[in-house]
Write a structure and sequence with these properties.
single chain; alpha+beta; 225 residues; 6 strands; binds zinc ion; two-stranded antiparallel ribbon; Muramoyl-pentapeptide Carboxypeptidase, domain 2
Amino acid sequence: MTEDLKILTGQTQDHIEWLEPKIGIHIEIAYPLNELTQAARNAGYELAIASGYRSFESQLGIWNGKATGTRPILDEDGKRLDISRMAPEDIVFSILRWSALPGLSRHHWGTDLDVFDKRTLPKDYKLQLIPEEFEGKGYFAPLHDWLDKNLSRFGFSRPYEKDLGGVSPERWHISYSPLAQQYWKSLTIDHIRKVLSAIEFELKPQVEMALPEIYERFFKRISSV
Ligand SMILES: [Zn+2]
């Protein structure tokens, strides 16, 4: 496997700089991210990263956990779904609304980050990354209102801004476009098919059967790169 393909699917950490033990970013976004963070600080916000780089292995753990019910799968209203009553194909698509298939997560690249305002995070509150926290009167809505106006100046964008029938809107998720766009263009369905065919994972037959639709709806279909 080439080094590039490994980056695309989260199978290397060679391109990652670690800001904290579990928070990694692509080495090449360190500068623009620092510029964005400084500008946010000057505007009164403390931009913090909840999740940056994620490996294939860790996305696989999330996937298998949801497929087997050890991690909750939520519906559109944030209520837990009872997967014991669902057809396997339906479980696949319910997981994909909130979690990527291993190998198709933009978090593999280190160019995409889930961000919040540390200044308005209440003490003893556990960050959940749910829409209520980021919209309307949510704790982190003011930071994100500011980001709406300022992200693009630093090269960042919001791939999951609108509901296009694929991934649910995720206001917390931002992407460094100049690099992410290259990765998004480079990762083909044949790459991902090859990676997945080599491993075992939950719901594999259903995923392989639906892969063209999954790839188009939950990977290619985005609000912006
Ligand atoms: Zn994210």
